[in-house]
C-alpha cells in the first residue's frame, strides 16, 4: 500500500494504514520530524517496560500514595534504592544512538532513564523528568541521585547486598516483598530543611509541567506548516501524556508513524503502524537520513 498524500491525512479524512516498514521509512525520510519515545525503546538497554508483550501487570506507586504516609515512602525508597544501584549503569542502545544521529526537530521522551541525553541527543524534552534527580517537596531544592544513594547505603548497611537478586521492574523499581525489611528501611530527610524527598519525576496522579507540554505542542504545530511527521517509538500510548501529541498531530493533518511491539492507543490515528523493535527500525531510518 502506498503512503497517503500529506493533505489527505486530516482530522476528517478516512485513514488507511499500512504495516510496511519500508513504506513507513519512505514517508519519514526527508521530512522534519518530532519523535516521541517510550519504555519500549529502553528494553534493549536492560530496562523493563510497563506494557510490552509478556510484561506482567504493574501497579506503580501514585503520587497520592507517596505523600500519604511515611510507610509508603519507605516502601518506595527501599525498592528504588535497589533499582538505582542497577539502573544507573544502563547504557544507551542502538535505538538511542540512532535517534542521536537523526537530527529531529524535537525528541519527546516519556522515559526517566536519561539515556537519550547520555547518547547525546540534542533538543530533548524529558516529559516525566529524570530519575537521576531528587527534589524536596518542602523547600523544592533539587539534587543528584548519587548523593542520596550514598546516604541510603550508609543508613541501611548491607541492604543492597542482601536483596541483590530481587527482580528488576520499570523505572528503577524492584520487586521486594520482605515487609520487615521495608519497615526497617531508613529514609533521610532533605539535607537543607529536613523535608520529604521525592525523585524528580512525574508520578502517576501528577501533571506534567505545563511549560514542557507547551514546548512540545509548539514543535508539533511547526510540523503542520513544514509537511513534517510525528514518529512514535516504543510507546503503547496508554497514558494521555503521550497520546495527546498523537491526537494533536492527527488533527492538524500531520502523518503519524508508530513503531512498537504490541498494539497502541494511537494505532487508529497512524498512517503507518510498524510491529517491530525500535533499534532496527531507527537504525535503518538514521542510515537513510545520513
Provide the fold topology.
Layout: H1 21-28, E1 33-37, H2 63-68, H3 70-87, H4 94-102, E2 106-109, H5 115-118, E3 124-126, E4 129-136, E5 142-144, H6 145-155, H7 159-162, H8 179-183, E6 197-201, H9 210-226, E7 229-233, H10 240-251, E8 256-259, E9 272-274, H11 278-289
Helix pairs in contact: 4-11
Broad CATH class of the largest domain: Alpha Beta
In spatial order, strands of the major sheet run: 3-2-1-7-8-9
CATH superfamily of the largest domain: TPP-binding domain
Ranges where pLDDT stays below 50 over 5 or more residues in a row are 1-16
Query: How far apart lie the N and C ends?
Result: 26 Å
Q: Write the CATH architecture name of the largest domain.
A: 3-Layer(aba) Sandwich
Q: Could you say what the CATH topology of the largest domain is called?
A: Rossmann fold
Largest sheet: 6 strands, parallel
Question: Total helix count?
Answer: 11
Question: How much helix, percentage-wise, in residues?
Answer: 25-40%
- Indicate the mean pLDDT: 87
